Structure formats: C-alpha cells, structure tokens
Amino acid sequence: MYLHELTVANLKLLRDMKISFLHEGKPRPWTVFVGENGLCKTSLLRAIALAATGPERGNQLGTSYITTMPDKRREDAQVTIEATFGFSERLHRYREYPGLEEKPPHPPLLESKLTTSTRLGVLRGSSRFVDASTRDPLPEGTQKGIDPLQEARAAGLKLWFVAGYGVSRNIPQPLSTSSRVYVPVLDRLQSLFDGLPLIATDFVSRFDANTAREFGAQLKKAFVDHELLPDVDDFLLMGRGGISDSKTFVEANRFAMRLPSGEKIRIPALWMSQGYQSTIAWVVDLVAQVWSEAGEQVSLDEIEGLVLIDEIDLHIHPTWQRGLIRALRHALPRVQFVATTHSPMVLPGLESHEIFILEADQEGSVRWAQSKQQPRLLTGGEIYERFFDIRSVYPEEHAQKLHRYLRLAADAYRSDAEEGEMSELRKWLQTEGVPVAYEPVPREQV
Q1: Which secondary-structure segment (H or E) carries 192?
Q2: Number of C-beta neighbours around residue 409 at 10 A
Q3: Direct distance between the N- and C-terminal alpha carbons of the chain, in angstroms, rounded to an integer
Q4: Strand runs (DSSP E) across 21-73, as ranges?
Q5: 204 CB contacts (<8 Å, ≥6 apart)?
Q6: Over the stretch 106-127, which tens digit does the pLDDT of each residue have?
Q7: What is the pTM of this model?
Q8: How far, in Å, CA of 66 to CA of 50, rounded?
C-alpha cells in the first residue's frame, strides 16, 4: 500500500493543505518534513496513519488524540482528512480487494475520507475504489454496503501494509509484550499516538527454529551488509535457530563492533547506545510485522508498504545521520517512507523533491514548500539557513557551533567536560536566536 495524495483541513494548524506523494507519476520513495516545533509534522504522520486505517480502527488507534485534532481558532471546526492510496502491480494477482466481485486488470486506487469535529469527538468516514486512470468510481461489480478499507483492516488482509513509529521506539524488555493481545493494524501504528512499546524483538519468541534462523539472517543483512548500524562488523547467529528467544537476542553478545582504537568487541544490544537500540527496535519490528502479515519469510528487497517515522534522526549521532537515508534506500528499496526530522545532517541523503519545508503564514496556518536545491550540494551554513531558517551575519560560526552541539548531544558517552561544553554551546545558540530542537540523549554509565 502506497500513499499518493493527502488533503487535510482544520486539523490543528493545518487549515487547508494538499500534498502529492508522487514523483514522475510514481509513489515518491522518500518524503521528509522539516520545520520548527509546533508546525504539525507529527500531526501529518498521524493523519496519514488514520486515513490508512479507517474510522473503526482509527477510533481505537487515536482514542486520546482525536478530541485534540480540531482547529481551535474556529468554533466547531470540522476536521477533514482525505487520502488516496495505490497498490503495486507486482503483487496484484495475490492481493484481495474487498467489495469487488471481479479483480480488475490493474490495481485500483483507494480513496479514504475521515471527518470529526469538537462536538462529534470521534472519526466518521468511508472509502471506495476508483479507476487508476480516470479516477472514476468502480461501481461495476462492487458489492453494496462494503467499505473496502474497513473490510481489509477487519480481515487483516495481506499486502495492505502500513506501519508507523513514534519517538518512543526502544527495545522492549524481553517478553514484556508477549502477553498482550496482538491486533496487527493497531500495533503497527500505535507508537505514533501513545508510545506503546514496540513488539520488536519479542517477535523472536513467537518464531519456530527455522523462521528464527532466517529472520536473523535478514537482520544481519540489514544491520551489517547495508550498514544500518555503523561500526557493527557482524551479527552473530549462534544457538537454536540462530536466535532462540527475545532474551538471548538482546542480552547475548551478538553484535561485533569496531572501537575507535581498531579493537573489536562483542556486546549485547542492551549495552549499545540509545541510537543503536532505537534503530534495532524499529527495523526488527518492521521486518517481523511484514513476516507476520505475510505468514511467510520475506526478503528485505521484497518488502512493500508505507512506513511513517517521527524524528528519524532521534538519538543518532550526526555522522551516522548522513548515511542513514542511503542505507535505508539500499536495504528496503520497495518501501515508501514518510518521515520528520529536526536535523540538517539527514538532508544530504535526500533529493530536493523529497524535502518539504513547513512554515507558518501570517494567520498561523501551516504551509509547505518543496526544496529547490539539492542539499548535498550546499555547505553546512547554507543548509541551516535554507531549510531551518537560521540566518546570521556569521552563518559559518553559528553552523560550526550548532554542529558541535549536535555531536555532543548525540553522544551518550560524553565526559563531564563535554557535558559542560554542550550546555555552554546551547546557551550561546539560544542567545543568538538559533533554534535548538534536538534534546541531548541521556548519558550512559561507563
């Protein structure tokens, strides 16, 4: 399932916004929103998640969020979310389309519409299939009274995959989520709304020996071969099936890392920095969710679907951020990512048409503009100025100090002296009017 278009009205500060997620007629593989805090970046991800879920499951997913959605500047404003989704031709013959008595020769588009208001307090909506060429509804062969999206979500149909990851994406304590009732369409998106722990590594305890062995091999390919975890040289697959359960996955010395000295050590996942742990958690969760939906093993380059990630740079060292998008492109080439970021270091991995800059107009409503320049061709100072509105008569000085702050803030093993330097840099940047949205990661005990 891929996102083609999103229209939002009266959702917080999103009074009237329409965004295309196509490039040259095809779903854009990456869309990243940048902008100051409070410009509804997370709300855009949540709107997409709700539109992809439908009203029945959406009301369960966003229970505490829905009542906060309406634009408070308008009395009883009606929130409207409209989204158009498409499907791949490659897997068309395997996919079910609820409500269509006969499968069309090519994948149709799915139009989803949701509404709510302050007075209503819940989501209402519907969906329908339309012809991908004409955008006309498909009345022929359509069963009356069938809402295709709600039917697909209720039945847990395969090849309608959407997942979302909020800022709380940690490795769960072993077996901590195994006993909870697993509702796939909700569990794949819940962390975007209320920080519910990911199932992630706990999936391992649900796999048989052969599946666990192959699962470990796919993770090794992602983490090591595609370099999703910098400085990790190997991911060891000893034991029953390679990985016997979630406890051995996170507590055994499975990750072989290079130290700055050149020495190599083996450590467990729970000994790694927060950036490593959060990346391990959501990547493991994503691959396991895909396998769970498919009911079979799926290689990384065969995974399809839509993945939403809030603050993709969270807890990740700036030098790692620069290669993150490239690594994900190689590891998951058929996945469509929609993400947010506060970090300029992520942008050089993106094309200009993949970056959407959010700004508030004179009335406070959020608008967007696409980048007109390739960020990888810009200096650090130019990226700060053009994408984050950091302007100064000494742009390079500000850029250098902000870059140093980011490096220290992302280092969980910074010394006491570096902690003091980081605090002084932050005070200086704030005094100079430079927005510092990145909060320091907690220091680890050495």
Answers
A1: helix 191-194
A2: 21
A3: 44
A4: 22-23, 26-27, 30-34
A5: 212, 215, 243, 244, 245, 246, 249, 288
A6: 999 999 999 998 888 899 999 9
A7: 0.82
A8: 10
